[in-house]
Amino acid sequence: MFSSKILVLFLGIIMVLSAVSALEIIEAMPTSTQATMTQGEYMTCYNQFNGTYFPYKVMVTYFPGNYSGGMGFPSKWTVTNDGQEHNAVVPTTSTALMQGVSWELPLNNYVGGVAIPLTTPDTRLPWAQQLGVKGALVMQTQMAGEPLGVTLADNLLFATEDSMMGSISAINPVTGQIVWTATGLAGQAMNNAIVYKGLVIVSVGGVCFTFSQFVHYETHHYNEIMRARNGAIYAFNATDGRLVWMIFTKGEAMPAPAVYHGVLAYTTGGGCFAAVNATTGQMLWKDSFPGYMGNMASVNYYVMPNGTPLFIAGFTYTVAPYGFLLAVNGLNGRLAWNATMPSPYVGANTGLGDVPPAVDQQAGLVIDNDIANFNASSNTVDTVTFALNASTGKPVWATNLGTGIIPPAFKGGMPTIHGNFIYDGSPSLGIVAKLYVNNGSIVWETRLPDLKIPPQLPGGPRGSPTYYHGLLWVAAGSRVYVLSPTTGDVLSMYYVGGRMGIVNPVITGGTMYLSNSYGWVVAIPLSQIFPDWESY
């Protein structure tokens, strides 16, 4: 039996959901209250939108008793890793977060996967006996865990999981309790969720190819190649998980989109660079670049001196030069410029489709990272950080960070811009580097201790470093490293466990949030990672 108060709340939720245009609600009923919940559990199942059926049931489970406001976060998260510069520092007014909170959430257990204990030996991972430890670590990140970091905005922490059908969850940042979770998305959710005007937006799609794509490659029909066919973009109400709009895409929509002034731009494995109205999902413009594949190079933007926004994203191509950066006019989608790896470097493998570009709005530069000059006899590549003129795409400078064994899967390091400097990593070399923005000259390079690199293990860091409180915070392998931005000295190494792939630390107050390929989201007090952090 329900109390009258809960019944009124339940009927209110049903009325709101029934108002969503053309959404067929199969089920919307509370189930038994779980031990960690205080006000009930509400489940809603969606199987179509605007007359088009979903491949899987999208199940939204909402726990209103787990929500608490007053975090003081910004209401938006518009680009991967929170902003054009990729420095994920979020202000807060929460006393608890300023002091530092600690919790571990086995998120995969709630969305149909398995959260593997963080202290599990590598040899006990799925696929380890068949693919070896390095292959198993990559598979775990790409097929079952969380490749990218979390999103912190609008009073909540948002995390995606790519286990089986994709999912997105909203988490109370203080308690680590789930506020709502949506499962059954059309593809793997492998990116950083975007938050805008009360919506959390996630694009989905996996890394696989059908056999016909290999036929296109063998017959040199490169422009017909498309990666995956299970792409889609979903917009959920950020507070309660209600589905507001969704669209299917041509090919996977694995890269995260970006939003600027209500225009949400995205790329796909089918060569699309397109934009929709962020609040309604209505298509605004759509470009087609046959054979280009959106990979992990999430969209960023640059605002021209005349106020026109350019959306910028990387694409992979199957033959040389293997990758391109494209910039399109955010108002009409017209191509503004098309760039490749600056000479004399020759891009290799997955190319510029891997690494999300960072944008220095003040300097008018696009900063990216790629591997180049593949040597087949030694299986080595150079890791190159470079800058392009954001208005024209013309090369400004390129700097070789060093030569190492080619890393598996995601090949580059995601750059962070802070002040007049760039902080970047190389999975091939296991280093973090500091470079000048204006000319790319190297200030220092630091090899991260105890981080195993190719050919033995995947290496790192892949995610962008975070600059906070006069310190550089880096997630790589199973550890968080704290470096001096001035000298590059390693000040602290903190063991988290599991593996962190393209993961950037997200910091607010005295708390750090990390996602993990083993299916976990964790909150760690900064004082636990580096006790002296407040003295810097």
Automatic annotation (TrEMBL):
A Pfam family of the record is PQQ_2
Residues covered by the Pyrrolo-quinoline quinone repeat domain: 165-445
Identify the domain of life. Archaea
SMART domains (alphabetical): PQQ
* The protein's name in its UniProt record: Outer membrane protein assembly factor BamB
